[in-house]
């Protein structure tokens, strides 16, 4: 079993997504003692944004790319190989302004690439994901309660985007553990953390 952990919080201390991810991985490794684990910390070390050259290289056949094109895609290729290596994908994703952190968006822009993590048939206009046979777990704290059918539910672009983009590249088995109300007083926020922790520790036995 191979686990890729992707952290996107810009905070190291007091990061709920990082802390819960760490606890989950420790518990999961007890059930999978021979598992391999890699961490990609895009919150602290985000990859570079795609550029015009990057985009041109991406849509140029590998056989006809220049050395400059190949060089601009090196980091993206490494991130994709890392993703394809993994059987399990753990994403620590705090909600920032109703969506995902910009650090995670640039990571996704680097790994969602035609003929690498998805294919497109220009005749039938159909897409197919290439990162199949994986499970994803998303741990997503938020300031308030953004659950469906709540007043803020329609503003939850974090969860809907992640589900869409992961399925687009072929990852259909997605578990999302929310940690709402993190800007509320401790008597409200702490029980939410405990509920998420309990769910994650239970999940560690079967994920």
From TrEMBL:
Name this protein carries in UniProt: FMN dependent NADH:quinone oxidoreductase
Highest classification ranks of the organism: Bacteria, Bacillati, Cyanobacteriota, Cyanophyceae, Chroococcidiopsidales
Cross-referenced Gene3D superfamilies: 3.40.50.360
Residues that, per the record, bind FMN: 9, 15-17, 95-98
Catalytic activity: 2 a quinone + NADH + H(+) = 2 a 1,4-benzosemiquinone + NAD(+); N,N-dimethyl-1,4-phenylenediamine + anthranilate + 2 NAD(+) = 2-(4-dimethylaminophenyl)diazenylbenzoate + 2 NADH + 2 H(+)
Molecular function GO terms recorded: electron transfer activity; FMN binding; oxidoreductase activity, acting on NAD(P)H as acceptor; oxidoreductase activity, acting on NAD(P)H, quinone or similar compound as acceptor
Taxonomy, superkingdom: Bacteria
Pfam families named among the record's database cross-references: Flavodoxin_2
Keyword Phosphoprotein among UniProt keywords: no
EC number: 1.6.5.-, 1.7.1.17
The record's free-text note on cofactor binding: Binds 1 FMN per subunit.
Organism: Aliterella atlantica CENA595
Keywords linked to the UniProt accession: Flavoprotein, FMN, NAD, Oxidoreductase
InterPro entries, alphabetized: Flavodoxin_fold (IPR003680), Flavoprotein-like_sf (IPR029039), FMN-dep_NADH:Q_OxRdtase_AzoR1 (IPR050104), NADH:quinone_OxRdtase_FMN_depd (IPR023048)
Subunit structure: Homodimer.
Function: Quinone reductase that provides resistance to thiol-specific stress caused by electrophilic quinones.
Occurrences of domain Flavodoxin-like fold (ranges): 1-200
